[in-house]
Amino acid sequence: MHEIVSIQLGQKSNYEAYFTYSPQEEPLVDSDIHFRPGIGADGGETFTPRTLIYDLKNGFGSLRQFNALYEVAEPLHEQEKSWEGRIVTQKTPEVAPHQYQQSLDQGGAIPQLTPETVRYWSDFNRVYYHPRSIVKLNEYEHNFQSSSFQNWAAGEEIFRNLDNDADILDRDLRPFVEECDQLSAFQIFTSLDDAWGGFTARYVDKIRDEFGKKSIWLWGQEDGQPNQRGVRIAKATNVARSITSLAATVSVFVRLATPPHVVPEYVKLSEGSEWYSSALLSTAIESATLASRLKDQAGRVGLLSDIESIFGASGLPSILQLSSSISAPNSEPTRYAINGRQSSHINGDASHSNVDAEVSHLDIDFTPYDLDYNPEGEEKIFAQAKFNRDANGYKRLETEDAVFDNWERQRRRVEGLPSVEEYSSRVEFPLVDSFPQDLVQLLAPTKSFRVECALTSSSSTARRLKVLQKTIGRSLGFDEREDLLNSLAILSEPLQSTQGDDSSEYDDE
With helix as H, strand as E and coil as C, how does 170-197 read? Predict the structure, then answer.
């Protein structure tokens, strides 16, 4: 077994990081990868996610630390035991459970969720968590209108204070790691443009120091909504700090806009609803990592470290772009050509000749949008991992999966060819009742849909980092400005030199 331990940091990440499967798909998915067995308060067996969930005070909504599986009377603190006087307990008013949660608890008819009634990510949560998974940060209170948690350095300070009081790895993370048979990776969901970026940077430093070369995948979300200039610059500065602190430390770094700037006509987002935008993003992230928890008969299986090796052979920073496309079951999959030629899939057998693989250009792009970014000019693709979920398409692909060995990947890099590999599965994305039912406008009602998605390393990353340099160039003091700009330049330079691209149009004057 190759378990993955997840760490969810903040509201956006907690909206995003849920994985659910309908009963008919469970036999094809190894749930032990993301879920752990345990014993509840009544001695019964439990099955809860291998995850840590961090959020601010009142950020969990109606979710309680001790749920029905672990309901126990709270013990008295030592101070209460020795106190002989009257004890007065003051509690923060609890958030009333959403009707959806009440129906799940009571086994009644499930009401349809709406963007108007979803207040917290816990309103549409479908699983029980172990009490150790819930970590509340009391330094800040969750407030939808508050800007007090927008300072990147505040996240660093909170982490250091918590870590000084009680080693966070020992208190929070190590119990989940030690119950794994063969831990394969950490998966971190966070936001990059606020204090969670600073918190994550220091957390990842400790994980890397403690667990060496273990795979660490980071899904970093950024606000995809338009903002006033001052807010935009402040968020860009936080993003720059997050990228320069994390990109060289983690194994894979994916920048994500929520919601994406442009979506196709068949996607209907609800303005201002994190439930809708996170649901759309989950179709891509869940699909891009599906291979790591599939059983052999369900499709091409691969650890997260196998997927990241597709990009590692290029020798370039693994700052990747995520894109996807959704279609109805039994529809014909779209195939894209590179350099105007249609090409076949690549077989890893040395007796077969390798030919140019096709690069996918999909219609939902989660790459953060930059006002000053110029999309004109040729985009050089260095490497791409493609993921295809299609009950029918899988039958066409199962004998011709695109597999390169490291020698072949390096050969293609030297020759200037992209390294493109595909993972296919017959497990389509399940449309469960916690998913917005009108988000994807398909021709007819369905219980699942096909998803094609791709993680891509390309030259556009260099240009986007240049835009980031230009945006923050005049907003910082001299010392920090020089450090950030130099660090961004170091990350972007290999991509520029590899493609021979002149990005001087973005240079700060």
Answer: HHHHHHHHHCCCCCCEEEEEEECCCHHH
124-179 pLDDT, tens digit each: 888 889 999 999 988 777 665 456 688 899 999 999 999 999 999 999 999 999 99
Closest among 247, 142, 248 to 195, alpha carbons compared: 142
Q: What is d(CA 37, CA 495) in angstroms, rounded to the nearest whole number?
A: 44
For residue range 365-416, list pLDDT tens digits in order. 999 987 777 766 678 888 899 999 988 765 444 434 445 566 666 677 667 7
Annotate 82-132 with three-state secondary structure.
HCCCCCCCCCCCCCCCCHHHHHHHHCCCCCCCCCCCCCCHHHHCCCCCCHH
Dist CA 437 CA 144 (whole Å): 25
Strands (E), 288-343: 319-327
Which pair of tokens denotes residue 140?
Answer: 């800040």
Mean pLDDT of 62-71: 76
- Cβ 133 vs Cβ 53: under 8 Å: yes
Let me know: does 239 contact 150? Beta carbons within 8 Å. no
Contacts of residue 208, defined as CB under 8 A and 6 or more positions apart, other chains included, come to 216, 249
Encoding tokens for residue 384?
């791409």
Amino acid symbol at 440: V
Return the axis-axis angle of helices 229-246 and 195-211, rounded to nearest 10°: 0
436, pLDDT greater than 80: yes
- Which amino acid is residue 445, in one-letter code? P
User: Which residues have CB under 8 Å from 14's CB, separation 6+?
Assistant: 8, 53, 55, 59, 121, 122, 189
pLDDT tens column, 191-235? 999 999 999 999 999 999 999 989 999 999 999 887 888 888 899
Which of 503, 56, 16, 10 is CA-nearest to residue 242? 10
pLDDT at residue 76, rounded to an integer: 44
At 88-113, the pLDDT tens digits run: 655 667 788 888 888 888 888 888 89
Joined tokens for residue 461: 């990353």
Q: Which of 509, 505, 471, 500 is nearest to 488 (CA)?
A: 471
Element (H, E) at 460: helix 460-472
Tell me how crowded residue 141 is: count the other CB atoms within 10 A of its CB.
Answer: 14
Confidence of residue 114 (pLDDT cuts 50, 70, 90): very high
Phi-psi region of 134 (alpha: psi -120 to 50; beta: other; left: phi over 0): beta
- Own/partner contacts of 240-243, CB < 8 Å, gap of 24 or more, are 240/468, 240/469, 240/472, 240/484, 240/488, 241/152, 241/197, 241/198, 241/201, 241/484, 242/152, 242/192, 242/193, 242/197, 242/198, 242/200, 242/201, 243/192, 243/319, 243/465, 243/468, 243/488, 243/491
- The pTM of this model reads 0.86
